[in-house]
Amino acid sequence: MASVIPITAEDRRRLWHPRGTLCAVCRQPTRGFGWFDPHRSKQPRPSVWFCSMPCQSFWTRLARERFAMVDLTEEERAAITASMKRVALLMDEIGWATPLADLTEAQVRALIEEAVEGFREAMSDIARAQTPEVPF
Predict the structure, then answer these.
(1) Which helix (H) or strand (E) holds 78?
(2) How far apart are CA 47 and CA 44, in angstroms?
(3) At 39, is the secondary structure helix, strand, or coil?
(4) Per-residue pLDDT tens digits of the chain, which is 136 residues long
(5) How many CB atoms sit inside 10 A of residue 60's CB?
(6) CA pair distance 79, 84, nearest whole angstrom
(7) Which helix (H) or strand (E) holds 35?
(8) 8 Å CB contact between 49 and 34
(9) Residue 27: which residues within 8 A CB-CB, separation 6 or more?
């Protein structure tokens, strides 16, 4: 008779955790907080993953309000504005008169990273500000 090796909690976690996915709100690596569409009964259900409970709560609130909408939310518009300030500081260093075609690959990469990081941080801050802190 073959011996059966029990499945550990770590083995179960590996089976369901979405390795390599990014938070649906702030784009940080996920940490096991998830959401799925409760209205669809057929598998696979649309799902998204989050880095924290504030991001998960923020997404859930938005999903209740207007999940199917394509337009930007007020929060996303505010995050874009916050990222524009960071990009503007970098453009001050590069020079506003420099045409985009004359930018080096490193400069374009820096602009994109600055915009994405600014948006991610702003969305994370907005989610944290709108979600009450967990008491434990």
Answers:
(1) helix 74-94
(2) 9
(3) coil
(4) 556 677 676 665 555 566 678 888 888 888 777 776 666 666 666 678 888 888 888 887 777 766 555 677 888 889 999 999 999 999 999 999 988 889 999 999 999 999 999 998 998 888 888 776 655 4
(5) 15
(6) 9
(7) strand 33-36
(8) yes
(9) 116, 119, 120, 123
